[in-house]
Amino acid sequence: MKLSNLNLAARINLFLGIVLLFGFFILTSVILKIAYDSSLKKGEDYARLTAKNYGNEISSKFNIPKENLDQLKREIMLLSEQQVISREQTNQMLIDYLSNNKDVLDVYMTWEPEAFDGKDK
Predict the structure, then answer these.
(1) CA contacts within 13 A on the Cβ side of 4
(2) What percent of the chain has pLDDT over 70?
(3) Cβ proximity of 93 and 72 under 8 Å
(4) For this UniProt entry, which segments traverse the membrane (predicted)?
(5) Which of 50, 74, 88, 97 is the most buried (most CB within 10 A)?
């Protein structure tokens, strides 16, 4: 069947059908692209928010023992400056700190030679 054999109404209907079909495909493509972009943005936002929440949770787990350790350091330094603490007492304070903070694996102190109590050999 040739296109030239169709009457005018059939040609118009065929043309409109092709235009509508083409329009439908374009509209569907645009809607899918918008949905994809929106989903991608929402997924990235969710991932960012989740990572931030986990980061805050981890930071809070580290901050409390760190603050306690900083306080312990200040106490030991003050007592050392006043020369009222021995090495054994300092070691016991560190051991107590470890037993009270289960999230901390290890703790140690280093001093310059003769700086702690002047009893280095």
Answers:
(1) 0
(2) 98
(3) yes
(4) 12-32
(5) 97
* Cα-based distances in Å from 59 to 56, 88, 105: 5, 32, 16
pLDDT(31) > 60: yes
Concatenate the DSSP letters of all residues of 74-106 into one string: HHHHHHHHTT---HHHHHHHHHHHHHH-TT---
In angstroms, rounded to a whole number, what is the distance separating the alpha carbons of residues 106 and 72? Answer: 14
Q: What is the reported pLDDT for 1?
A: 57
What does the alpha-carbon distance between residue 97 and residue 42 come to, in Å, rounded to a whole number? 44
Instruction: Write the CA distances from 79 to 62, 72, 84, integer angstroms.
Output: 26, 11, 6
Q: To 10 degrees, what angle do helices 8-81 and 87-100 make?
A: 150
Residue 9 neighbours by CB distance under 10 Å: 8
12 membership: H or E segment, kind and range: helix 8-81
- With the C-alpha atoms ordered 73, 77, 83, 84, is the resulting torsion angle positive or negative? negative
**pLDDT of 6 over the 80 cut:** no
Query: What number of residues does the chain have?
Result: 121
Residue 86, CA distances (Å) to 52, 57, 77, 102, 119 in order:
44, 37, 12, 25, 10
